[in-house]
Amino acid sequence: MIRPAAFGFNEETASNNFFQSDPGVSQLELQKNALLEFDTMVQTLRENDIDVLVFDDTMDPVKPDAIFPNNWIGTLPGGVLSIFPIYAPNRRAEKRDDILERLGKEYIIRDVQDWTEYEAEGRFLEGTGSMVIDHDNKMIYAAISERTSLSVLEKFAERNSYQAIVFIATDKNSRPVYHTNVVMTLGEGFAVLCEEAIDEEWELIAVRQLLESTGHSIIPITRDQMHCFAGNMLQVKNKKGVKILVLSETAYESLRKEQKQMLEAYAALLPIAVPTIEKVEGGSVRCMMAELFLEKK
């Protein structure tokens, strides 16, 4: 996780992230609120025995979206570390050699894959924002958008022996959803999916069949719930091996009682309040966490 130094409304990302909204308050106030939400989230995760590695954002250059590291860095089981091509030019400075060097010192990295060359071609793949990955079954679910290029996705999948499952997802105003990880969440034995967002029936049928055939019970959410970030969750295991589903308070409050009960059959729910981060930058708790599948040295 990256502790923000200059959180704020990013106009470059707002061009295709329709979950963002300009609050009309000062950047200093936004930074103060985001920092409080971030620190509270880290504290809450650690209180629940979840291992968190925190890096401080740097002040120069200003990086309003640094709080979302999962878009530029990702790891796969087996020691793969990937650096991804980012859509917004002012986000590309988030990629930091010192973070990569620290990970290299503390974890076993067998393969570094740098995909950033595709930025020059206007093709992007924003990590686990663009891709919801089923590591056990070697499958990648991806909603194609300006931030998720089919050609780069296919190259990434082939390089790592995964199968790519692609579809188009739209929001309540029929605009493409910018990231797959607001449409769906994968956990052990379950999948949260905004079926309403997949307009093409044959694509929805294909996604459902693949999820069910790989042992995932589907918990549907509505488009309105998707806009409350109910698809933007992450299941983790704490140091004691307890399965915990991290989600925002906004997402938690949007869920119906029966949906919460279905989720609780698979993991303990851990709602965390990040309203400033959600409203201003259009991402929630899942976007704030980049999973580490690397082994410690």
Q: What is the general shape?
A: globular
Mean pLDDT: 93
Major beta sheet, specifics? 3 strands, mixed
How would you write the strand order of the largest sheet? 3-4-6
Over all CA atoms, what is the radius of gyration?
Answer: 18 Å
Chain oligomer state: single chain
Q: Give the number of domains.
A: 1
What does this protein structure show overall?
By secondary structure, this protein is of the alpha/beta class. It has a single domain, classed as L-arginine/glycine Amidinotransferase, Chain A (5-stranded Propeller). The protein has 10 helices and 16 strands. The chain has a 3-stranded mixed sheet with strand order 3-4-6, with no helix packed on it. A 3-stranded mixed sheet has the order 7-8-9, with helices on both faces. Strands 10-11-12 form a 3-stranded mixed sheet, sandwiched between helices. A hairpin with a 4-residue loop joins strand 7 and strand 8. Helix 2 crosses helix 10. The longest helix has 21 residues. It is globular and about 45 Å long. 41% of the residues are buried. The mean pLDDT is 93.
Features:
alpha/beta
Explain briefly what this protein structure is.
It is built from ten helices and 16 strands. The chain has about 300 residues and is an alpha/beta fold. The protein has a three-stranded mixed sheet, with no helix packed on it.
